[in-house]
Amino acid sequence: MIYNYSYGGRNLNQFPGGGLGCLIFLVLLVVGGYYILQGLYYLLLWAAPALLVLALIINWRVFPDTIKSWLKTLETNPLSALLSLALAVLVFPFFSLYIFLKAIGYRKMEQLRRQFGEPENPRESEGFVEFEELESTPKKGFDREGGELPEPPIEPEKQQPKKDQNPYDSLFN
């Protein structure tokens, strides 16, 4: 059981206004969030073509990678892939922002790769490696030409250990 203590007839651990005040605050929060998202949607609606062109200029590989990812999801989980495609069409401005941010992330990863000296194609930079072929000799006792393997040693059968007589066995049978 939970006890609420009050001081002077007032409850100290509640939001002012009680349950009705919390409900009004929640409604105001939802309405404010709606208008903020609506304004962001209209702003991105006008900026979406520019964001897509900038993403194309920054790193064009973002578009094929996104399509490959969607096709892979379509193969593994078709319902999720169709829902994500419908969501991308319905909230196209936010999808264009996602593509733009993904292109910026790809560019940043390329810069970090170049900064830390990781070569893009290690095979081209290294060339061929010289190696020396060594002869190997088989182990003693194995004849390759005969094709016969040595017989495995015969192990004696293990005997089961005898059970000790327990005086309590007769009580539970």
Descriptive notes:
This protein has 173 residues and is mostly helical. It has a domain at 14-117. Helices cover 59% and strands 2% of the residues. It has a two-stranded antiparallel sheet with strand order 1-2. A hairpin with a 2-residue loop joins strand 1 and strand 2. Helix 2 (62-76) crosses helix 3 (78-90).
Stretches with pLDDT under 50, minimum 5 residues: none
N-to-C SSE string, H for helix and E for strand: EEHHHHHH
Shape verdict: flat
Q: What would the average pLDDT be, to the nearest integer?
A: 82
Main beta sheet strand tally, sense and closure: 2 strands, antiparallel
**What is the rounded Rg?**
36 Å
Strand arrangement, largest sheet?
1-2
Strand percentage: under 5%
The separation of the N and C termini measures 50 Å
Structural class: mainly alpha
- Find the count of extended strands (DSSP E, 2+ residues): 2
Q: Total helix count?
A: 6
State the share of residues found in helices, binned by percent. 55-70%
